[in-house]
Known about the structure:
- The protein is of the alpha/beta class.
- The protein has helices spanning 2-11, 25-34, 50-59, 72-80, 92-95, 109-120, 130-146, 158-171, 192-202, 206-213, 216-229, 288-293, 315-325, 407-411, 427-434, and strands at residues 16-21, 40-41, 44-46, 85-87, 100-103, 124-127, 151-153, 174-183, 263-268, 276-282, 301-306, 338-344, 362-368, 385-386, 401-402.
- The strands form 4 sheets. Strands 1, 2, 3, 4, 5, 6 and 7 form a 7-stranded parallel beta sheet that branches. A 4-stranded mixed beta sheet has the order 9-8-10-11, covered by helices on one side.
Amino acid sequence: MYDILLKHLEQRKEPIDVIVVGVGFMGFGFLSFLQKMKGIRIPLVISRRPVETRLLLKNSGINVVSEDIQSTAQIREYADKGSICVSDDLSLLKKYENAVVLEMTGTIDYGTEASLIALKSRKHVVTMNPELEVTVGSELKVIADAHNVTISDVYGDQPGSLSRLIAQARLMGFKVLMAGNMKRYLDLHATQEQMAPWAKDKGLAVRQTTSFTDGTKQSIEMDLVGNYFGMKVLKRGMVGPEVSDVKEVLTKFDWDNLPREGVVDYVIGKNLFPGIFVVVEHTDPNQKKYLRYLGLGEGPRYVLFEPYHLCHLEVLQTVVKVALFGQETINNSLNPINRTIAIAKQDLFAGQRLDGIGGDTVYGMVDSIENSEGLLPVGLSHHALVKHDIKKDTPIKVSDVVLPITIATRLTGYTKPQHRFQPVNSFFTRMINLF
């Protein structure tokens, strides 16, 4: 597949134009690396901080247009000369003629707004944003399907990497029993103050780092994998056994009594690589001697794993597959079976505002849709107003808070749109109310 993608890019007479929304840590890494690739380019970057973004690109040796350009013809002219335009104007997503928008905002509301504009303009949307996917991804997929375009998260993040590994396993005749994440450290009550030094050392946002440490990010990622592949969780927050080697997962579960569709989970250990794994068994019993010879063990179950995920460097694989073939890597599906709910990270008090994913007030845990009925999705928790005191480690109900009216809470039907239409529960009516 990789040689096919490279060949397509190298032989193109006209490059694939990709608009990037958001230039954070990963966004910049992708943008910088793409300068060396043939057959694809970034004519336009949308940023909420265009002045700072231009300065970042300029100081990093990337050709960037110094002024704000609104003319799509001029943007294309600059792109032909090898320069990138930067703007904070989301309407350019609609005006500039191209096929793919890469959403890398790391936010839910702003990312949703950008994605909606792109999809309604009949453009494919590639997200590097599992938080957005599990919060509004199913609603966005309805819109994408209606406009005959694709929405997909990426290779490089754990969900996309697991999607690829699952596909590889199935193509080799394996049945996937578990898709999993490898984690080194977990502190459900990690605070931004605790994580600030580590975040600074790694060049990451402290909110992002906190969501890694308190397990929210992991729950969200496995939520997304489970929804796409129809794989369940065994318990709220998953099991997460401690291991010193990923292959020890084979001794940690009752494999004969797992759900037939498979499950998502994780293992934790300080010596683990930041990678992904699947537990499989082969459908052909004659393969047992071959798998023993190849070093996978005695069976009947085996662990396939990748000890890394290369984040922004792998994103291009999804972008090109979407641009050329409309082929998704992973998304939240039209019928999600899991949800990541908000749980109080500390004792909460009436009148307090929740600070959302990666903050000090909540952490997220994945659970089944059935067990999450009436509970607050963690992706909608930001700025929610607490109605009454809530004890630490208590799942937060939607009825426990007053949700802000945002594009995400409206799209998902949790708040009423502020205009003349009377909202009902149907998705179609919510779309009318929004647009």
